[in-house]
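Example S7 (structure tokens).
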């Protein structure tokens, strides 16, 4: 049985070491946890112990909630280890999740199809990966003038300035892809550091981030 151990509690390791046929997969950083998901049959996770690199803890929490195996905290496991170790799930077929990527479509002018390519790429990623696990993808628009992304999908609000200014607002989702349409006149009024911080936070919550931009 392969057990994902994402905790610093030494008692968990002691308990698992005494159980035959148990293979611990030790992971504290979110990247290693993500890589271990395909082979995991039980996850012991203490979220405050996790290191958010390169994914956010929130993303890992969502993926674990969707996974088809049990998960528990170290306290829950230690209170009744036999309960979790006896409810064995079948061994999972080996597969590899796609690595985290940020890619950009860019050109010196508009009308070249980069927005269509950016959205199509994100949609293809979501369609291909949802067969095993729903992996989040996003499209960011870093352009001038009107939002081509909004025109393409017919509805793409809230715009980027609203999302940055009001963190409680969720981005519009188009067929499983989170959209961040640019409203340049408003975004340029925000502090650059605030825009950068928001962008990095959102990238950490997606496996694929596609950027539609005009150079530079």
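Recovered sequence:
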């Amino acid at each position: 049985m392969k057990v994902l151990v994402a905790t610093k509690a030494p008692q968990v390791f002691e308990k698992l070491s005494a159980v035959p046929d148990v293979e611990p997969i030790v992971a504290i950083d979110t990247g290693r946890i993500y890589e271990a998901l395909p082979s995991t049959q039980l996850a012991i996770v203490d979220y405050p112990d996790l290191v958010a690199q390169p994914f956010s803890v929130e993303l890992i929490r969502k993926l674990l909630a969707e996974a088809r195996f049990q998960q528990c905290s170290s306290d829950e496991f230690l209170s009744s280890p036999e309960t979790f170790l006896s409810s064995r799930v079948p061994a999972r077929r080996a597969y590899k999740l796609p690595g985290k990527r940020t890619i950009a479509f860019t050109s010196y002018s508009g009308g070249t199809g980069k927005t269509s390519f950016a959205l199509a790429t994100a949609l293809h990623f979501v369609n291909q990966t949802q067969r095993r696990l729903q992996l989040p993808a996003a499209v960011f628009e870093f352009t001038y003038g009107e939002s081509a992304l909004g025109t393409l999908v017919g509805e793409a609000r809230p715009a980027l300035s609203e999302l940055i200014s009001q963190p409680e607002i969720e981005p519009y989702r188009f067929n499983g892809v989170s959209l961040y349409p640019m409203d340049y006149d408003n975004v340029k009024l925000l502090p650059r550091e605030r825009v950068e911080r928001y962008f990095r936070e959102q990238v950490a919550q997606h496996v694929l981030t596609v950027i539609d931009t005009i150079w530079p």
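Notes on this example. The chain has a mean pLDDT of 93.
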